[in-house]
Amino acid sequence: MANLGKFSIGVGDRFAHQAKAQLEACILASQAGVDVIPVWNKSNREHTIIGSEPASVRAAADAAVNDLGWKLPYFCDADHINLSTVERFLPSCDFYTIDVADYIGKTAEPSSIDRFVGHHSELLGAIRMEAAAQSIDITPELLRRTAAKFLFAVQEAGKIYRKIEAAKGNGSFIPEVSMDETDSAQTPAELLIILAAIADEAIPIQTIAPKFSGRFNKGVDYVGDPAQFAHEMALDMAAIQHAVAAYGLPSNLKLSVHSGSDKFSIYPAIHAAIRQFSAGVHLKTAGTTWLEEVIGLAEAGGEGLALAKEIYAQAFAHSAELCAPYATVIDIDPAKLPAPVEVAHWSSAQFTAALRHDPGSPAYNPSLRQLLHVGFKVAAQLGQRYLDLLDANREVIAKNVTHNLYDRHIAPVFFGPAANQTP
User: Fold this and answer.
1) Cβ proximity of 6 and 414 under 8 Å
2) Are 7 and 36 in contact (CB under 8 A)?
């Protein structure tokens, strides 16, 4: 049976060149005493933009595991799939992020809602969350309203799961249900009701990705109240533990934090919740590795720096087109984007200081970073020219990728704020 383990990290690798550098970060974690399972994730949208296929993700992951002698599990994620996109991922993937956000708010058949509400009277009243020493209250109105909002989406998740199961076989893959790309955060009470519905659909999810309050913008820190996030995460973990006991969901079911890269201000809260509940977590990162490629090119100087500047100039010129698909998860201030003619005169140090996510640096530019985060299409259009420079500057890029993934992400989340960093 496929088992994700307690701690795992989703690692995006836009151009399938950094799998070894990413795996090195997980090896460092194991050497320090914590096993963090790598999951290489790439969405249908990213494959379409880049012109790649899921088989390329599998090939890169397999090669890295082979070369570095990784003996623990690893997975390839069909990221944010639905019924219309899942087919192309079936031969290569063994982790499926079933995204039903588009179906939230679509109402199930009234008879289905009636059956669900009638079948789950145990959800009514004050439900004691033993792990959190706190109760959540679910009224008849809340139960019915939540069922009306989410039941159709969960039923759709069931259809997608059964399609994957028919092709892959029971227990041969990791199912996740994702509800993060929607307008409003789910409350812990709603999450508990959703988990009851998932259990009714017999989906053996090992991770669930709710939407938290605050903004999880691409490539930059969390925007919101970290204390509120900590409170939500604790109750969500308690709700998961309650649902596992009440509905027979997999014992290793855990939260998945999407757009989790670079959210430095909430990593202490995630680590504290892990310790409080002896729980696992899946931290999903993606474009942070692509940005480390650009940083590495700029740091290398010469042709690498020139290409990094060219990528920025093209992203600046086509910002409206590049930003449109990501409008809900970026906040770019156009007035803070330097003109390409200015960037053309930057040194390696100036370019990397503006792009590298170091909130303490006065040169760090979150708007520039977010624009380049969504600008990977520019590099895709450069084709072999971009890939050749990745190969030519492999060592400096790999150093940045490993350092970023281990020191800025794995260490603070899975080891804690006082974790030792790599030399």
Assistant:
1) no
2) yes
- What is 287-344 written as a DSSP string? HHHHHHHHHHHHHH-HHHHHHHHHHHHHHHHTHHHHHGGGGGG----GGGSPPHHHHT
Identity (one letter) of the amino acid at 200?
D
Does the CA dihedral 241-247-248-250 come out positive or negative? negative
Structure pTM?
0.96
Strands 37-43 and 281-284: unpaired
List Cα–Cα distances, 255 to 81, 149, 270, 343, in angstroms.
18, 21, 10, 40
pLDDT tens, 186-202? 999 999 999 999 999 99
What sign for the dihedral angle of Cα 123, 129, 130, 134? negative
Name the 3-class secondary structure at 226. Answer: helix
The domain spans of the chain are 8-285, 290-392
Closest CA to 241 of 256, 251, 231: 251
Helix (H, G, I), strand (E, B) or coil at 21: helix
Q: Across the chain, what does the average pLDDT equal?
A: 96
CATH class name, domain 8-285: alpha beta
Cα 347 to Cα 299: distance, rounded to the nearest angstrom: 9
Cβ-based neighbours of 392, under 8 Å, separated by 6 or more? 303, 304
| 63: its two tokens | 């090669």
